[in-house]
Amino acid sequence: MLAGTPPRVRPPATVGTIEIFANRAWHDEHQGRLRGGATDILWCHTRHGVVVHLGDLGERPAGPLLDRLSSEAIDVLIVPVGGYFTIGPDAAAELVGRLRPRVVIPCHSSDDGVRLPPLGPRDAFLRRVPSLQVERRPVLSLDSLPDTPTVVLLDRPPDT
Fold first, then answer.
1. What's the pTM value of the predicted model, to 2 decimals?
2. How far apart are CA 52 and CA 123, in angstroms?
3. Domain holding 67: CATH number?
4. Degrees, nearest 5: CA angle 91-108-112
5. What CA–CA distance (Å, rounded) separates 116 from 79?
């Protein structure tokens, strides 16, 4: 391990006051046959709320997976929106509408600095959630989340 590299955590785990759990999901809508099997959805329970990172989710959640996602209030939902490798803007917007998190952070799009041609931009997702406020921030603190449902676009750090 490199100096200064944090240790790998395998859920379920507790790191300080954060409890981390995982749920398996498919990397595509064909039970993982197209994009490499399963992926993990990570749940982080903190003293300030619940953060869910959908990871490389490539299927539209249904059945037990959707029930689990709907089972508790989500304060921050990190959702892939770029399509091809993960769900795209339509499925992401549909899921956000179902789960109604306080904050949505779109990820895995062409805006994230990944230069893979099939990835779409965040704007395609933003057009599908016009009722949500949009903010750009350098950092998001869980102890000062917006009062109304908001999409937060995190600023990328400058390349070093």
1. 0.90
2. 22
3. 3.60.15.10
4. 140
5. 18
Total domain count, the chain:
1
Q: Where are the alpha helices (DSSP H) in 51-121?
A: 63-69, 89-99
Confidence tier at 8 by pLDDT (50, 70, 90): confident
The dihedral over CA atoms of 25, 36, 128, 123, expressed in degrees to the nearest 10, equals 140
In a domain, 7, yes or no: no
Residue 2 lies in a domain: no
- Return the closest-CA partner of residue 52 out of 99, 86, 120: 99
Residue 48 one-letter amino acid: H
The range of the structural domain enclosing residue 76 comes to 13-154
- Other residues' Cβ atoms within 10 Å of the Cβ of residue 46: 16
Q: Are 102 and 76 in contact (CB under 8 A)?
A: yes
* Residue 104 CA to its chain's centroid (Å): 8
* In a domain? residue 1: no
Give mean pLDDT, residues 87-115: 92
The span from the CA of 43 to the CA of 52, in Å, is: 5
